[in-house]
Write a structure and sequence with these properties.
Blueprint (H helix, E strand, L loop, with lengths): L3 H8 L3 H9 L5 E4 L11 E8 L2 E8 L10 H17 L3 E5 L9 H18 L5 E5 L2 E3 L1 H7 L3 E5 L3 E3 L12 E3 L2 H12 L34 E3 L6 E8 L2 E8 L6 H16 L4 E7 L5 H13 L4 E10 L1 H6 L5 E5 L3 E3 L3 H9 L7 H14 L3 H6 L5 E3 L4 H12 L15
Parallel strand pairs: 3-4, 4-5, 5-7, 6-8, 7-9, 12-13, 13-14, 14-15, 14-16, 15-17
Antiparallel strand pairs: 1-2, 2-3, 10-11, 11-12
Helix pairs in contact: 3-4, 4-5, 7-8, 10-11
């Protein structure tokens, strides 16, 4: 076993230590289990400290120790930091960079890893988990990394179950290099509560935008984009009067598989940690039935405050999934609500009235959409709660989240949904 002086000497110029120093406030953290591991540093450095004033538990695989390969000792070392995070209610951030696992340790390693993975799963929804992939992360270690709520990857990083397999494209945030990945991890932490019983951190300095569209209703320079692979939607964190909200914004097109995956994962995370969800709705539907079903389930199951803003079209299943279960639903002045595509609804409802020249048909359809399917008509019939001008949207959202801050709603007793 290495003595204290040997350990200090080996850590003095250690890459994993340097990474954690960049991550923690002031470069200060307390290392735990430094001497654990027979004749080595167990291929990882673990510790706790503060990030923007919040207590955080973290570890970084040490590429200089046996290429960072996962071992029984490393798994046990990581298990301790996960157990500590659970006890104190603090986020876990893991920095990954290794060349696989020590296969020579056989079933002993599998047993240690199974306990670590089980613990990570149990922590899901209790404390936030963030994985930062700085290099290779393959094999069973990739299971642990992908278990996190958010994955941050550098451009050169590889996350895969097998070294020869296609890398997993599951990064919530992409960074050009390690330094940027660390900064993005620090930024992400500022939007997260320390655990599922804590409040999200509030910002004291608030700068309002001049509201001209949906995004500008939020505090200036507070949008943190996530999951860039969605073509018809975006999800992000933002602040409203200094308070964190999870935002889902659809962009007018049909919602594809990647869109639904990102939306449902994000809504479930926000619900687990009581982060309000604000949804901007502008879509004519889902690509497939399965996607509609998953989105409907995620929104219906969520008991966190939910506010929906119809900024364009809310058609059929999109209305049902993203507006129907909202606590507060509003629409911008030119929005439409329809059971099917607006033009198709007009053709069906107008019937024989369309037995006129084409030019007159277009006029009748336009009038039908602007009256019968309008936001104003939707509000009159109770499909939405209010119609607001875009310049008043910020104030309306602030008011909604303020009144919903004391929301009381509990889910029916059950283990979990089966959808």
């Amino acid at each position: 076993m290495s003595n204290n002086s040997e350990i200090k000497a080996r850590l003095a110029d250690n890459k994993a230590v340097a990474t954690l120093e960049q991550f923690f406030d002031g470069g200060v953290f307390t290392e735990v289990n430094a001497a654990f591991g027979e004749g080595s540093l167990a291929e990882a450095v673990c510790g706790y400290g503060y990030v923007d004033g919040m207590a955080v538990c973290a570890f970084c695989q040490d590429i200089t120790e046996a290429s960072g390969a996962m071992s029984t000792a490393q798994a046990k070392k990581l298990t301790y930091i996960y157990e500590l995070a659970l006890k104190i209610g603090a986020p876990v951030v893991g920095f990954y960079n290794s060349k696989g696992a020590r296969i020579s340790e056989g079933n002993m390693l599998l047993d240690a890893l199974s306990k670590l993975l089980s613990l990570s799963s149990k922590l899901s929804g209790v404390v936030p988990q963030v994985s930062v992939i700085l290099g290779d992360c393959v094999g069973t270690t990739a299971l642990l990394a992908s278990n996190a709520d958010f994955v941050i990857k550098t451009e050169e990083a590889k996350l895969a179950l097998d070294a020869n397999a296609k890398p997993c494209d599951c990064g919530a945030i992409l960074a050009k290099d390690e330094a940027e990945a660390i900064e993005k991890a620090k930024a992400l932490i500022t939007y997260l509560p320390s655990n599922n019983l804590a409040l999200t951190p509030s910002a004291l300095d608030v700068e309002a935008n001049a509201a001209s569209d949906f995004v500008s209703a939020f505090d200036a320079n507070t949008v943190l984009d996530l999951y860039k692979d969605g073509e018809a939607s975006s999800v992000y964190f933002a602040r409203l009067e200094g308070n964190v909200a999870g935002v889902v914004e659809t962009k007018g097109d049909i919602l594809q598989k990647a869109d639904v995956k990102n939306i449902t994962k994000f809504v479930k995370f926000c619900d687990a940690f009581s982060i309000p969800v604000i949804t901007a709705v502008d879509s004519e539907g889902f690509k497939c039935l399965g996607g509609a079903k998953k989105a409907l389930s995620a929104y219906s199951e969520a008991t966190t405050p939910k506010v929906s803003v119809i900024k364009g079209k809310a058609v059929g299943a999109v209305y049902l999934a993203m507006v129907g279960s909202a606590d507060v639903s509003v629409a911008l002045e030119n929005a439409t609500v329809s059971p099917i595509k607006a033009e198709a609804a007009a053709y069906i409802m107008l019937g024989d009235k369309l037995s006129v020249p084409v030019a007159e048909q277009d006029k009748l359809i336009e009038e039908f959409i602007s009256t019968e399917l309008s936001a104003i008509n939707g509000a009159k019939n109770g499909y939405i709660n209010d119609v607001v001008a875009v310049e008043n949207l910020r104030a309306r959202l602030i008011s909604a989240l303020d009144i919903l801050s004391s929301k009381r709603e509990t889910a029916l007793p059950k283990k979990h949904t089966t959808i």
